[in-house]
Design goal:
The protein is an alpha+beta fold. Helix content is 27%, strand content 36%. The chain contains 3 helices and 10 strands, in the order αββββαββαββββ. It has helices spanning 2-33, 65-69, 118-134, and strands at residues 40-43, 46-49, 54-55, 58-59, 83-88, 92-98, 143-154, 163-174, 177-186, 189-201. The strands form 3 sheets. Strands 5-6-8-9-10-7 form a 6-stranded antiparallel sheet, with helices on one face. Strands 1-2 form a two-stranded antiparallel sheet. The radius of gyration is 23 Å and the shape is globular.
Length: 202
């Protein structure tokens, strides 16, 4: 009986070790799936610096809010980007905005039902496109101005607690003027789409 009890205890310890190792492995993999945050993360006692995520065969270029402000001139309370998940200078950018009850515009839009103004979603998309345009070396320190909005469609409302995914792809560019195809999503569903015309200036 004593030998059987020892064997059961040893088997239980081995199972616990296996579960612990699987948990650590999942923790490390989840850390490496996160975009760059500018912070050092702890995983299994090892300090890891997360620098980006792979997209296909390349590393995704991610930016935190401080790095975004090094590229575009917008500041609180009108900076409507929390992070950039990926971007390619002159080509596209993908960003995120966490919408909270603390947003100033919810105080008046609307008191009885808090809804993010559609024009501010367009502004967030424009700022996402500005990251793609102003990250080009020749545009460093410049400003991207609105030139027009075409083919705009509002397909859903955005409420406090939603996370906006913002995608803007540069589809036309000639000199300082260009057009971005912009789409905003909440939970994978399109809430706004439009073509945004911009002009880069001093």
């Amino acid at each position: 009986h004593m030998a059987a009890a020892i064997q059961r205890d040893e088997a239980a310890r081995q199972r616990n070790r296996a579960v612990s190792m699987r948990t650590e492995d999942r923790s490390i993999r989840s850390i490496w799936r996160q975009p760059y945050s500018g912070m050092k993360l702890q995983g299994s006692g090892i300090e890891l610096q997360v620098c980006g995520r792979k997209k296909g065969s390349r590393i995704m270029n991610s930016l935190n809010v401080e790095q975004i402000q090094e590229i575009i001139p917008h500041r609180h309370p009108f900076l409507l980007l929390d992070k950039i998940e990926d971007y390619e200078p002159g080509q596209y950018a993908v960003g995120y905005k966490a919408v909270t009850y603390r947003e100033d515009f919810f105080r008046g839009h609307f008191p009885q039902k808090a809804v993010m103004p559609g024009v501010l979603i367009l502004e967030a998309l424009a700022q996402t496109g500005a990251v793609a345009i102003l990250s080009m070396p020749e545009n460093k320190g410049k400003i991207a101005f609105f030139g027009g909005v075409q083919k705009c469609r509002f397909k859903g409302m955005v409420f406090p607690g939603d996370t906006l995914k913002l995608e803007t792809k540069i589809i036309k560019s000639k000199g300082p003027v260009g057009v971005g195809q912009a789409t905003a999503y909440v939970d994978g569903k399109v809430v706004v789409s439009a073509e945004l015309t911009f002009m880069v200036g001093e």
